[in-house]
Amino acid sequence: MKKFQIKPRHIVLALSLLAMLIAFMVYTVCVSGKYSYTENVGAKHLEADQVHAKSSDETVAKIVSVENYTEEGNNELKVTVEGVNPGDCVVTLAYRSPENGQMLVRTSAFRVLPIGVVYDLTIDSFTSLKAVIPLGVAAMLLIVAILSLSFREKQRNGEFYYSMVIIGGVILFLLLNVIVTLTDSQLWSRFGEAVTTKDILALIVSSGNRFVMFSEIPVIMVAASLAVSNIWLVVKEGFRLQNLLGVVIAVLVAGGILTIRLSDNYSVIQPDALYYFAMLANIGVAFLLSYFECMFLSTMFCAVASTRYNPPYDMDYIIILGCAIRKDGTPTPILRGRVQRAYDFEQEQFQSTGKHAVFVPSGGQGSDEVISESESMKRCLMEMGVPEERILKEDRSVNTYQNMAFSKTVIEQDAGDIYTVKVGFSTTNYHVFRGYTLAEKLKMRVKGLSAKTKLYFFPNAFVREFIGLLWEKKWKHLLFIFLFFAVLLVLYLIIRY
Q: In the chain, N or C: fewer CB atoms in 10 Å?
């Protein structure tokens, strides 16, 4: 298999992200030596000279100014503190309330960092923290741009492997989060105020919820389409549990969205144990939905793209992936379609380049089959005019993985080294992407040929293949989900306390 190569765009991405980080740190040092915060004194005006302001340690931080500040009809005091030396101090404001004359005392705790930054311990903020949001949006857009180039390159080169699904899922998640962030009017209305670390963490934690909110309608439409296609499939093919996978997906999606809605409604209730459970359920379910939405949509796009890819006419071998045959030993319509696609491509290749390919029909004999699937395909190919010497049978496999693995062995025995020849494989359209991922697992470089199937059969078959892909990578998915919930718990505890 082709090893990962560091390309110029990867270097550009790394250097750009590093430059953003350095720029943020420089900006922080330059502007965060002074920190301003406001104190709301009510509807009535209070003169700044009526306020007694004091720093507990002026060798750490000193008060630069206390000014009147009016915001949306509220009278506030704007206090500016400047760092002097590293350490902690408390700033105290004492004044009589203009509302009832009562003496009020307000305190705020600060820490001056060794780099001169004044950090507000009371609300966990510093002056340049608000720059994290636009920088985060810029970083996400940059990552999307670079990953999109990688995604397009894989699509153009016919490298439809599972890494392509991951790239597509990340692009989709980041892009929708950028859109939701940019259209969040409430967030940007507060942008001029002090943004706290809890605001940033809450933004990260709620990303799954915001993703589901934004993608809810198209996802419901996809789920409904799967359910309808299943009904069509049952009408055409008969009732079987495996013909209802789309309905199961639709029910799970509907249940997840309903859970989020119910937990959202509970959030207005007085906080208690159930409230916090509802909050965690909301975030957890939203993440799982958004995660599998991204994987499903990305897989669907990659699968469709793999069926539309036109391989170059340079194949030395064409593997034909087997499936069940009829009781009389002849291929079923699905299997015949795979054989026909391989034959048609080979004929087109010969007419275009003068180069013939060797066919490798792959499939063993089931307990209810009179001959092996590979023998059935071989007879079909010979009926089409393919000479026997250009057919190499693989008749031991019982599943798709073995189809690929044993066919690889057959080709190696004939060619000597599989990495010196060009290999294609022919299968039904819903199965092409799965073939690529299995070839990747076996370190094979292959190009897929897509045979058509009936429209009503495709959605449910694709869902089955998607579930198979998830199961094949189950430990990676479970590890990622576990790490997310571990981080979520830590961030949640920070936000709460």
A: C
- The half-sphere exposure of 247 on its side-chain side, counting CA atoms within 13 A, is 12
Q: How far apart are CA 445 and CA 416, in angstroms?
A: 15
**What's the pLDDT tens digit per position in 274-321?**
655 666 666 777 777 777 778 888 888 888 899 899 999 999 999 999
Confidence of residue 177 (pLDDT cuts 50, 70, 90): confident
> Can you list the pairs that 225-229 forms with residues at least 24 positions away whose Cβ atoms lie under 8 Å?
225/459, 226/250, 226/459, 226/460, 226/463, 229/456, 229/458, 229/459, 229/460
Contacts from 342-350 at CB under 8 Å and sequence distance 24+?
342/318, 342/424, 342/426, 342/449, 343/381, 343/384, 343/386, 345/311, 345/315, 345/318, 345/424, 345/426, 345/449, 346/315, 346/318, 346/386, 348/313, 349/313, 349/314, 349/315
pLDDT of residue 241: 57
pLDDT in tens, 309-341: 999 999 999 999 998 888 888 999 899 999 999
Highest mean pLDDT among 143-152, 186-195, 411-420: 143-152
Q: Is 467's pLDDT higher than 80? A: no
Order of strands, sheet of 52-55, starting from the edge strand that comes earlier in the sequence: 52-55, 87-96, 103-112, 118-120
Contact status, residue 403 vs residue 426, Cβ threshold 8 Å: no
